[in-house]
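For the sake of clarity, the format in which proteins appear in this thesis is described at this point. Each number in the token line that follows is a code from a learned vocabulary of backbone shapes. One such record is shown here in full, so that the layout can be seen directly:
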Amino acid sequence: MAKANKTGKTKLHPTKNPISENVRGSMVELLQTHLATSVDITYQTKQAHWNVKGMNFIAVHELFDDLHEVVEDYVDTIAERLTALGGQAHGTVQAAVENSILDPYPLDLVKSEDHLRRLTNSYAKWSKVVKEGIGEASEAGDDLTEDLLTEVGRGLDKSIYFLESHFQS
């Protein structure tokens, strides 16, 4: 669910973007939540990459690095769409802490299995909210934000598949 800024109204920069100001404002709020969450999951994934130990270390270590690169691209894509709509991207770590939909990542995880399970949960939680956002963008008539979130959703589904495959047989 998108969170409004502290004033309750999203301030927009002037733009020639043809989407109405009301729709742009609601899409900026929606995208701020996804920007914060993408920043959060980027560093959750890196936290796992830096600290993983155990069986299949190198494979899991490299998987986490690959997943980090994928979600890092989402950060940029989401921020650029948000600013194209006239918004001001809130992409700092502090903004992510305030606006991410994810639970804080435990700092004491070591075993590869624990990191894999925890990241699976984070990716799945964000994926659910992305799918809700796709519907919200569609309902608002913002095809481009809908398409962006669909792309992110496809990527999250693939990442979940890579993570969950360690537990399926």
User: Anything to note?
Assistant: The mean pLDDT is 93. Helices lie at 21-51, 57-84, 93-99, 112-140, 143-164. Residues 21-51 form the longest helix (31 residues).
